[in-house]
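Hey there, shall we discuss this one?
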Amino acid sequence: MSDSDKPDDVVVLTRLADLTVARIVCGRLQAEGIAAYLPDEHTASQLWRWHGAVGGIRVQVRRADLERAQAILAQPAMELSAEAASDAAAPGAAPAGPEGPVDDGTISAGDRMAFRALRVTLVSLLLPGVVHPYSLWLAVSALGRPDTTSWGRWRAWVALLVSVAGCACLAFLAYRFVRTAR
């Protein structure tokens, strides 16, 4: 066995772009009895803009625990019981836990579109009229999707109302410009 293959040597398991995710992964490994380290934790928390430039936040484990740690990371975040898995297999049904439906943490495409519409609308308040039509299109598209939840519908309606007002202001300014140019 060479010096670089000692079981107590620390090796990089993965590199992550987000400190919070790195801490969650480290905690998951530690909960399974694997000593996990974040050598870049303090640098990433103090110089958060730079961690991407240095290759991300390293999660390190002992070489002896590497295969087990990789197997743990390959597992899904939440394993369902057989009953919950059969409930989840039904189309449109959310997985059910002992207290009722369980949120699996995924965001539907409609909800993502609604959230994007709200973000674009808020940015368009800083850039009046420039991106309101795009935000309006996103909001209407999100409201027309069947997979948009009430969370997404609320955001899409807010984006729609603000975008309609922004488009109306843009149309009014265009009308005044054309009218005064004559």
